[in-house]
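Reviewer comment 2.1 asked that we show a complete input and output for one of the modelled complexes. We chose the protoporphyrin IX containing FE case, as it is the one discussed in the main text.
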Amino acid sequence: MSIIVRRVLNTLFPRRAGAVLLSMISTTQTKWPSNDMKEWSTPIGEYRRPKDTDLRSPCPALNTLANHGHLPRDGRNVSAWDITYHVNAVYGLSIPLAALIAYGTVFLLKKPLFSKINLQDIATNPGVEHCASLAHTNTPKKAEFGATSVCPHLSKKLLGEAKDGGYTAHDFARIRVEREREPGMNLQGWRGEIARGECSLTLNVFAGDDGKVSKEVIDRWWINEQLPEGFKPARKTTLWRAAKVGTDIRNTMKKLEKTE
Ligand code: HEM
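Response of the prediction step:
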């Protein structure tokens, strides 16, 4: 996520001023405000397990939206606006952030911005999907699509990595470093930013005031693609907050790579 911010800043403020601004983001302490969602009341649709013929993406957030009927349950004919609207309504991402990810994805898939896609298109290889996912296997080189369902082995490993009942930004950094060290991983450039962005969004949407997301939530939502009972987002996630937590994760990963 933060690479997009950096590119925009570097365009607006040439000569590394963008980099200076970004370093300011990373030096302010991360806060976990949770009092901005008191009025939030999006009714959550009924969960139904997907049928064999339904299409899904590699993203737990989008698959969960389809499993609860916010996106079409069959995973077909979805526009970037549908994704933007429901990611905002259910997960509390700001409209600019949700639109940036949704339209950015359609753009990177080289589809017309206002076209309808299937959720499986999001797994197109090569595309936005990347290697070293925490619960999905890597995509074989010549495969048309990456995995759209979780790998039981990786899921068990991810759940086993919880510390004191959950995951902080530091835990996700540690887990990502370990995963990216495995043989055959090559997560460079903007794909690395996307991978950290996924953990940042997860923390922003689900973590409590202590900055920790519980293992139960990760099991139910990331692995089983179902919203927690009585779910409402922990806070409003803006582009700034997503970039901030993503930058924290990147900085921690750099430190862990040097020390371990
Ligand atoms: C706005 C629309 C969104 C789009 C288009 C999108 C797209 C994607 C894509 C393409 C992947 C696959 C990356 C891979 O190859 O592993 C992914 C994974 C992921 N996404 Fe999303 N995403 C969106 C919103 C969200 C939100 C709101 C969250 C968190 C609340 C989220 C959390 C995740 C996580 C945790 C993964 C990692 C799955 C894994 O490593 O097993 N995404 N997303």
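The mean pLDDT is 92. We note this here for comparison with the apo prediction described in Section 3.2.
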